[in-house]
User: What shape does this take?
Amino acid sequence: MYLTFLLYILYIIISISIHEFAHAFSADRLGDPTARAAGRLTLNPFAHIDPLGTVILPLSLLLLSGGAFAYGWGKPTPFDPYNLKNPRRDAGIISIAGPLSNLLLAIIISLAIRFLPYVYAVFLTPLVLTNIGLAIFNLVPIGPLDGQKIIFALLPRDLAYEFQTIMNRFGTLILIFMIFPFFGGEAPIVSIITPPIQFLARLLLP
Assistant: This one.
């Protein structure tokens, strides 16, 4: 069991590193060198690990759930909207690049599984599930998650800024409430993200 937990933590670190690199790469391509200057335009996990969000929280959730689920985040990738031609739109592009990178990796690994011996499939299937879970979790439009910035980019301007104001004030508190099982049951966010995760898992995995 502990080997499984360690494997999931390794996969979470890999997946989050790719996720944050995708943010940095997109920002750099859109004209903002902030992430590059901060040393974040790299796949080196040590540049992206947030001790709480990348290690402590996922490991705690794995232990509490008996290995059923975990989620987390990396060190936020910095970008300066003033360096972007269209700050609201480009911030949305930068934000969605992270979840898309995880979905792309999940697709690639799921295709590889079909051509590999069964033993490799056993070890790689959790990597697919980790990336699906990370993508869906980050698309939730609350708090500091990517989904919040994506919604900000898509909403009409006035409504977008009202939404942003609410999220700036209460987003982190809402996220904390959503991710922790305060009343002894499963965390509220689990019921939100489980259906799309299961759908994609059935779609991608043999």
Q: What stands out?
A: The radius of gyration is 17 Å. Residues 2-29 form the longest helix (28 residues).
